[in-house]
Specification:
Order of helices and strands: EHEEHEHHEHEHEHEEEHEEHEEHEH
Helix content: 25-40%
Structural class: alpha/beta
Mean pLDDT: 94
Low-confidence stretches: none
Strand content: 15-25%
Largest sheet: 9 strands, mixed
Bound molecules: threonylcarbamoyladenylate, magnesium ion
Number of strands: 15
Shape: globular
Strand order of the largest sheet: 2-3-7-4-6-5-9-10-11
Radius of gyration: 19 Å
């Protein structure tokens, strides 16, 4: 068990001693360490069980501080940063040498975000270094959206989780990269494509998940529960797999014929923002029930629904697992 409370000074002390801790953000909890300190960064990779080829996001509290570790921003990025930071948007820029290669997996670029969580912003302002932080889950598993999720899986390996309550967005940040002046979405997330395009015009979205990704976060088998997980038409899937110990993760409606204790409804009022805040909690809950199969369905593919569908599709485990 890690200590869990809201002692910012304790958090700052641990981080200054090359320790890694859990921190809240509005998207998901992060596993944070001093981004300038290779010892702390190495610990992040060990605790998370993350391969070294998968680079980390660097979190800071202001545009002025970003200037310490990134080269100039493209004009569209500057505009987006003014409109959307602090917030669930990560942008990738050319890095300065002060960022260790371990953080960026040897890439000349670094992913940057100003998170919108009052405790973590306070913590970042106290520190004289930025925080590198992947989501605080073991590599490949579902991201944590409350302190207890972090403790459940990493509590044996870290001493402290700063408790910021439940994450207000509940799904990871949207990641943009820039080629020349033009942004491209590498990962759909808490900042909607519609919002981004309204601010800076049409942008390309990287291809759907693949087994041979351009960035490791684009691996298909990300965010996955341990229980086999299928997406489709819920009533049909329930019928096809009748007799199995089966759970249901649905958008807005309860499925008749399946015990309610094995169901999780993302949003009874069919609200995508509410569904996003509950997605990972729902997956974790169903995954803890020792089921043979979880069946689910896509949500409307607009706004936050695009990011939800992206996570659902990456969580899917194909039927050959049952044979
Ligand atoms: O909401 C979030 O983004 C959360 C919170 C804690 O901020 N963080 C998060 O981190 O989701 P992580 O490590 O789970 O996902 C970061 C993704 C990875 O897929 C990584 O491959 C990609 O960002 N990434 C990081 N730096 C990159 C770079 N220089 N170029 C391309 N992709 C990069
Ligand atoms: Mg992650």
């Amino acid at each position: 068990m890690a200590r869990i409370d809201t002692d910012i000074q304790h958090a700052a002390d641990l981080l200054s001693q090359s320790q890694v801790i859990g921190i809240p953000t509005e998207t998901v909890y992060g596993l944070a360490g001093n981004a300038y300190d290779p010892t702390a960064i190495a610990k992040i990779f060990v605790v998370k069980g993350r391969p070294h080829f998968d680079p980390l996001i660097v979190h800071t509290s202001s545009m002025a501080r970003i200037g310490e570790f990134v080269e100039d921003m493209p004009a569209k990025a500057a505009l987006l940063s003014k409109e959307l930071w602090p917030g669930p948007l990560t942008m990738i820029f050319r890095k300065k040498p002060v960022i260790p290669d371990l953080v960026t997996a040897g890439l000349p670029t670094v992913a940057v975000r100003i998170p919108n969580h009052p405790l973590t912003l306070k913590l970042l302002k106290k520190l004289d270094f930025p925080l590198a932080a992947p989501s605080a889950n073991p590599f490949g598993y579902i991201s944590p959206t409350c302190a207890a999720h972090v403790d459940a899986q990493l509590g044996q390996k870290i001493g402290y989780v700063l408790d910021g309550g439940s994450c207000a967005v509940g799904i990871e940040s949207t990641i943009l990269s820039f080629k020349d002046e033009n942004p491209r979405v590498l990962r759909l997330g808490g900042c909607t494509l519609e919002h981004l395009q309204a601010l800076v015009g049409t942008m390309q979205v990287a291809d759907a998940p693949t087994a041979n990704p351009q960035a490791p976060g684009m691996l298909k088998s990300h965010y996955a529960p341990r229980t086999p997980f299928l997406i489709g038409n819920i009533p049909q899937l329930v019928q096809q797999h009748w007799g199995k110990r089966l759970g249901v993760l649905s958008f807005s409606k309860i499925q008749e014929g399946v015990s309610e204790g094995r169901q999780f409804v993302l949003s009874e009022k069919a609200d995508l923002a509410e569904a996003a805040t509950r997605l990972f909690t729902g997956l974790r809950k169903l995954d803890s029930l020792n089921l043979q199969l979880i069946v689910s369905e896509y949500v409307p593919d607009e706004g936050l629904g695009r990011a939800i569908n992206d996570r659902l599709s990456r969580a899917e485990v194909m039927p050959d697992r049952f044979n």
